[in-house]
Amino acid sequence: MKSRLIQDSPQMRVWLQEFNHPDEHLEMLEKFKIGREFNLRSRGLIEYYGIDLIDYKREQMANKIRNEFLTAFAHYMTDHLEDECPRSWKECPPSFWEELIFAYLPHTMKVVPKKNYTEQFLLQLRKFVRWLDKRNDTTFLEVVDLYISQASPTLKKYEDLFSELFLNNYPGLHLPDWDYMNEIERLDKRMEEFDETTYGVFEVTKIMDDGIVLLDLHSHYSYFTKSIPHEKTDLEMIITGCFGKKEHAFLWDLAFIDGIYPKRAFNYIQLSE
Question: Where are the alpha helices (DSSP H) in 60-140?
């Protein structure tokens, strides 16, 4: 089979395939079909990881939890890492797994009723890495196990806090008749009540009985807030989101939360210019 890459438009690249045998065409169509079930981009089909993800999916086609993990992992490889994705499994350094666990996982955290997204993701990651090591003669499980043991208690705690703060803005998220647009409108009205807002990446630098102090890691300005439970925060916890305050007010209120990260994720977080 031969392949060539063309530029179809400024927004899209399309792979044209020239098949030597009809069975190759049917096999590629099958891969496209399976890949679509976990949102694998077309590019993934010609990258080294694509065939592994598809084969891992094939082993348990009806496993919803495995499919959700593969959706996240495929997004990490293509959309999150983009051009910085390693060229082969054997070129994946420890930082590849560190970023996935400490930065990507909290960045894409899903708010689920049982607050066990972190637990499920890390469990599925360990299963996948064990499978990957056997298939490709790699030795990733040792470092991944180490990172999971280091990250799990903190990330579970942060998931609990993130869920609480996120649901403050979207309290009906888990209701069957949730009106997304109604809550968006309510949030927009709340934003209009602030005379000043700031969006950024903040580090918890001080914890007091009545609130916490946050340092904007880009501007280096400090902000005091009582709208995040101080007993659930840690020094060096990193929070991304928006804070606002009314005219002449001293306190900053959390307008909306985007993510909560351990300090170890800092090297992988892009600060806004």
Answer: 64-75, 94-98, 105-107, 117-136
Q: Which amino acid belongs to residue 89?
A: W
Contact 132, 140 (CB under 8 A): yes
Distance CA 128, CA 126 (A): 5
**Residue type at 216 in one-letter notation:** D
Query: pTM of whole model > 0.85?
Result: yes
Per-residue pLDDT of 143-164, as tens digits, reads 999 999 999 999 999 999 999 9
% of residues, the chain, pLDDT over 90: 79
Q: Which CA distances in Å does 254 have to 130, 225, 233, 242?
A: 41, 8, 14, 6
Q: 90 is written with which tokens?
A: 């054997």
Q: For 79-98, how does the pLDDT look when each residue is reduced to its tens digit (9 = 90+)?
A: 999 889 999 999 999 999 99
Integer Cα distance of 85 and 11 in angstroms: 20
CB 230 within 8 A of CB 212: yes
Matching residue, tokens 């996935």: 100
